[in-house]
Amino acid sequence: MSVTRVLAISGFALAFLLVAVVEVLARREGSRIPTLAEVVGFVMRYEVGQLPVGRIAVLGFWWWVGWHFFAR
Amino acid sequence: MEQPSEFVVPDTPAWDKPIVLLPGFVLLAAVGGLFPSFSLPANLYVLVIGGTMLWLGLSGRLPRRPAPRRLDGAAGWWLLPALTLAFVELVTFAGGSTYHSPTLSLLSDPVLESYLPRAALYFGWLTAFWGLVRR
Fold first, then answer.
1. pTM for the complete prediction?
2. What is the residue extent of each domain of chain B?
3. What interface predicted TM-score (ipTM) does this complex get?
4. Are the beta carbons of B76 and A39 closer than 8 angstroms?
5. Which chain A residues in 2-61 lie under 8 Å from chain B, judged by CB atoms?
6. Domain range list for chain A
7. Is any Cβ of chain B less than 8 angstroms from the Cβ of A63?
């Protein structure tokens, strides 16, 4: 296995580990860090006029993720 | 006593319960796991399910969990995993998404070739999608 491949896999693993760490920190009593669900909920509230841009973007992104990994 | 109108939320449908939804998602994932990538059924299946979820999420027919109006500055900690993931993905993509420079997509391909991991990840995708719909 090449060094670049190991670095790439380690980088992805680090990113997912960081997600878990920040989520755990956010769930501590009295934490000022919002949970991932709260951050996503906040983004989904974003609207331009009457258009729920944040909602469309997040739901559309997740739809694309499913298509990309399961169908493409 | 009648509730003031500002506290009235859309009624939760009878089927909107974990005891109904989770077996339903298991069934959908079990079927979705059968279709190999690049096949027409796989494309149609994910497009129909995703389209339905998107429609439910935008229609306002389902009650939503309250979301914060503002975020504390400490929310910036979420940039750490987000930027790490984006950086590694961009670097590997720029490297050509090859064996020596694999993107997340390329790394997931061997995992998604087996039925059980594929169905399990399909289940995760569906339940997360539902969580977003209700946000």
1. 0.89
2. 14-66+81-133
3. 0.92
4. no
5. 2, 4-5, 8-9, 11-12, 14-16, 18-19, 22, 25-26, 31-34, 36-42, 44-45, 52, 55-56, 58-60
6. 1-31, 34-72
7. yes
